[in-house]
Amino acid sequence: MSKLLVSTALAAGLFAALCPAMAADAAHPTHVAKAVEKVEGQSAESVLSPELAQVPVAKGAMKLDGATGIFHSYGYQGDGPLVPAAGDQQSKTHDVEAVKTEPDKNTYLVLEGQKGADPAYNYGTHFLFQGHESAVKVDGKSHGYFTRINLDADEAHRVTLMATQDVDGQPLQTYDGSTWNPFTKQLLLTAENGKEGGVWIATPDYPSKVTTLHGVFGHASYEGVQVDKDGNIWLVEDAGGKTSKTIEKAKQPNSFVYRFVPKDKTDLSKGGKLQALQYMAADGTPVTFHADDLDGDVKAAGLKELHTAGQVMKAKFITIHDTDKDGTEPFIAYERARAAGASPLKRPENGLFRPGKDFTEFYFTETGDTNVKTGAGREFGGFGAVMKIKVANPSADEAELSTVFLGDVAHSGVDNMAFWDGDTIAVVEDDGDTAHTQRKALDSGYLIDLKTDYAKGAEPVRFLAEGRDPSATIDSALSEKAEETGFKNDGDNEITGIHVSDGNATIEGLLGVKVPTPLANGWRVFYTQQHGDNITYEIVAKH
User: Fold this and answer.
1) 204-226 per-position pLDDT tens digit
2) Domain 47-541: CATH class, spelled out
3) What is the model's pTM?
4) Using only C-alpha atoms, what is the Rg of the chain?
5) C-alpha to C-alpha distance for 203 and 210, rounded to whole angstroms
6) Which of 8, 61, 303, 536 is most buried as measured by Cβ atoms within 10 A of its Cβ?
């Protein structure tokens, strides 16, 4: 397996350069007619557009380069077997499986001189970094880690354990988002863990030095994170709200879009201003969070207007924390956002700048309620959306907010995203086991064409109909009784970490500067089939 994995991965990296004609065809993939059906007790293979293929670059069972203690494998911690033993029974006092670490968002970089746990080994120059969003808890604390897939390496050196503690010796959190900051030459890692969440900075060298910035960014359920040309950090929060008792399966908008404006873009520890987005209803009233009116927020007039095709909402960034005035003690960012009158949304998760637009258009996904029965329906964002923030320049406070794609039952729970080219966004679903069962369909990946008016009935191209691996099939059955048995792992596979990049680590390579040419000219495409076997793939042109 080792030789095959290395040879196929290397071939994937070289193929686009050697076969530009095939890569050009693959850049405009054919629609996959339908999602993979969810059938109880059955696994299923994924289906890609006929022009595309996928190559595994890391598998969950791979032992880590530098493994130690419970930090054992790419997709599993060392606290149990990878699959349940025959006849073993899950209970609240006994786990039948190891905790699956769920590698999440990917960041691809081309770097020279990188080291690993083996000082004599050449780790190459092509790397894929990711945090892991689940971990063993010891004394109530998560013991997370982040890793680096060495795309040029053999299996024994394929995935390096980069860090398990911060510079103060504290265990790392579980991470969801990641991106590269070329101004500081560091990775930004985000944790969507509420009062335990936040932003961490990590060096790309081995072993990585990880530092917290809770007095600068505060605590929140941050996931999406991107850097603009001015060095500002744009953050998207993923925190589901409380469920209504009167509007079926509908959840209160509860998450915010943030922007951090640093005093020194080369050193984030020097502080700056944290801002949150506020938008106005058509009558000019700000749309805000109401702790005492859950149902009113679920069906707010401004929320409906935002999810109406063609509607453009006036918006602005408002400052909720300034280190010059408020100091650098840790704080709760979402509490300050609520108090300042920022506008909550239906689980915005990830965002990116449209390439070639000089960082004036920021697009983000909104996941919604992930339940087919949501009483919020389409009109109040129950099935999610893709949204756009338009600004005159990336540091401007005044903005416009609009919906460019409104989800429905068949296209819902959109989560991770990547610009496929200058006009197309690859978005992938994370609709969850409940919605999968309700609609009898697993997750898909779509190409959203920004030149198309989807309000007139057009549908996006499905380039990936995700299947379900055997491990996820087992876990899905076990998770049905999780409340009774204490089963901790997730069930059906999820598409995460979709990433299109040429790996350029310079300021000129900042995502949003250059228009991608997917599968050609050094631009590579990755995603992770999360849960189950936790396999990270590279998508390549089929040949």
Assistant:
1) 999 999 999 999 999 999 999 99
2) mainly beta
3) 0.95
4) 22
5) 7
6) 536
